[in-house]
Amino acid sequence: MARHKPLPLYRNIGIIAHIDAGKTTTTERVLYYTGKKHQIVDVHDTKEGKGSTTTDYLEQERKRGITIQSAAVSTEWKGHQINLIDTPGHVDFTIEVNRSLRVLDGAVVVFDGVAGVEPQTETNWRLADQYNVPRLCYINKMDRIGASFAHCVKGIRERLGANVLLCQVPLGSHDEFVGMADLVAGVGYIWKGDDKDSPWDTVPLAEIAGRVSLTEVADREWVANLPKLREEMLERALAMDDAAFEKLIESGEFDQDTLKRCIRKGCVSGKLVPVFCGSSYRNKGVQQLLDGVIDYLPYPGENGGIAMVDEDGHVIGDQGVVDEAPARALAFKVINDQFGTLTFCRVYSGVIKKGDTLLNVTRGKKERVGRIVEVQANATKEIDEVRAGDICAFVSMKETETGDSLSDPAHPALLERMRFPDPVISVSVEPKHRNDVDKLSTALYKMVKADPSLRLEVDKETGETVLKGMGELHLEVTIDRMRTELGVDANMGKPKVSFREAFGRSVEHTYTHKKQSGGSGQFAEVTMVFEPLESGSGVVFADEIVGGRVPREYIPAVEHAVTVESREGQIAGYEVVDFKARLIDGKFHDVDSSALAFEIASRQCFREAQRLSKPKLLEPVMRLEVVTEADYLGDVIGDINRRRGTVSDQGQKGTQAFVQGFVPLAEMFGYINFLRSATRGRGTFTMEFDHYEEVPANLVDKLMEKEAK
């Protein structure tokens, strides 16, 4: 069966932003204006039980009024198919943004017109850079008191390092926000009302000043500078094409189609970031944003395909987005519920039909494609085949997990994997009813399989089941979802911090393992040097044996011993990180030496060397931002200092004041209660993991006691 639409008529895009910037509200308007739904549900109504938005359909999302898991919807605009993913803004659910950006071709980054660039915006922007995703910016909430287009644009330039291209400029702000000037088309759009079907007048740029009456000086300046802003936009956009730029310089003439083509070229290559504005809640600017998605964001494959890698992760080729190639797809999300498993996939090449057999190259297992569905948030529609560039879900795949590569069994290829963050917080989990032990184990396994930022362990000493995640909300929501989706109730223990350990200094140590009790004995001697490395370096093993002092066949046993032993340090049993282990010498016996003997010797060598190095305990340090009224700033800063934190920046965000800093996670449990009390409920905060830092020696015992309780 032939392709329904040519590839250039597809757009796979994500909507990403900090929490409360208006992603879900914008998605609702997109679905309304593209004819996908006939009624708009606002996010604040979901908290009152009046229904749910299309993409925030989970009970936990409706209760909290936030997006928790990314949801995919497909719609059409002006003959183009748009596959859209609405992602969460809360830092605890960054994994959802991570895996969505991995498979998308473009992104719309939404900004709160008052707050501008916020911490999670920066995190998401870095992820988009990492996956080379072209993006355009949409400055939302221009109708709010304190909205400042200039503040937002400055933040995008300075904090995100983006080469901003102003395609639109707002006409007014807060109560006076009536529309925007389109610098590309050379016209202004002035809305006649706030209703979702309200029409707008299209006015030439030169006539805008006479049509709008603005009281704010900054708003009047934007309107007065429109001719100059348009000239700047033309020069910077047409500079993407030498011939078009020369024509502009020589005659002042340009072609509208050429201008859009140049902006598109700059956007797709990442050299330009087009900026739009509007107010999704007031129904202004969403149609123009959709035009921008079609005009400037790439179709599947326009910005290149996906890297193919070997088992060690080294790039060995590139898979373009074409139908005439072996079938290759990347699983980027798994959802489990009582009805089965949905495996979300992005198809990069070839055609996959119902009934086909695919090879899970990551795990070496074959999977049969029983059913293929197109997903509309929590609804599905069965389809017979998918092609290069499509996003779909396969039903009831048993072996496939997030990040796995699926391909034609005759042409296996491993696609570049995603990188997932390490959890920083853990809780013990037990069933509410004693008879539910097995059900709890199954439910936890399903949740961890679906969310790679969760980890599951059993505490060797207490036998407790321990669930690790990205934050208190992340773990709380996971336990709640087990109840609503899988019918398993569980009790959650007190959150605990995921500490790390490190070598305090370089140590050279020799350990000899001897065991003789009749018959063949065991003998191995290793001399190793353990050196601390910079934060984030991981565990590095170096074989520096010369002259056969340790036979080649025993080296892997030494490396394995170091890797395994590093998972449990000598201070309090936490993972040991960021060190280099150099095997420099050793001895063996022709008869009594074995891989097992060398593994035992290496393990003991590691343990004793770490103790001798005066080991350090490391704790996760969080990047904190608090936004509140200026009157309460002194109390907030004083409290940060009391929590062993440091303040890195403070200033104004619209009418609000903000303070940024770094605080140990161990001091931040229950912080929301302090903040509500200190700011009379007016303060908000965001927190994300930043780095590990050494715990002061005088606090190690105190912290360990606290964790043991």
Automatic annotation (TrEMBL):
Q: Which superkingdom, per the lineage? A: Bacteria
Report the SUPFAM superfamilies cross-referenced here.
EF-G C-terminal domain-like, P-loop containing nucleoside triphosphate hydrolases, Ribosomal protein S5 domain 2-like, Translation proteins
Checking InterPro entries in the record gives: EFG_II (IPR041095), EFG_III (IPR009022), EFG_III/V (IPR035647), EFG_IV (IPR047872), EFG_V (IPR035649), EFG_V-like (IPR000640), EFTu-like_2 (IPR004161), G_TR_CS (IPR031157)
Q: Which residues, by range, are in coiled-coil regions?
A: none
Identify the keywords attached in UniProt to this record, alphabetized.
Cytoplasm, Elongation factor, GTP-binding, Nucleotide-binding, Protein biosynthesis
The primary location reported for this protein is cytoplasm
Any one GO molecular-function label of the UniProt entry: translation elongation factor activity
**Residues bound to GTP:** 17-24, 86-90, 140-143
Which residue ranges does the record assign to the Tr-type G domain? 8-302
Kindly list the places in or outside the cell where this protein is found, as annotated in its UniProt entry. Cytoplasm
Q: Does the keyword Protein biosynthesis apply?
A: yes
Assigned protein family: Belongs to the TRAFAC class translation factor GTPase superfamily. Classic translation factor GTPase family. EF-G/EF-2 subfamily.
**HAMAP family reported for this sequence:** EF_G_EF_2_B (MF_00054_B)
The protein's job, in short, is: Catalyzes the GTP-dependent ribosomal translocation step during translation elongation. During this step, the ribosome changes from the pre-translocational (PRE) to the post-translocational (POST) state as the newly formed A-site-bound peptidyl-tRNA and P-site-bound deacylated tRNA move to the P and E sites, respectively. Catalyzes the coordinated movement of the two tRNA molecules, the mRNA and conformational changes in the ribosome.
List the protein's name: Elongation factor G
Query: Where does this protein come from, organism-wise?
Result: Dyella halodurans
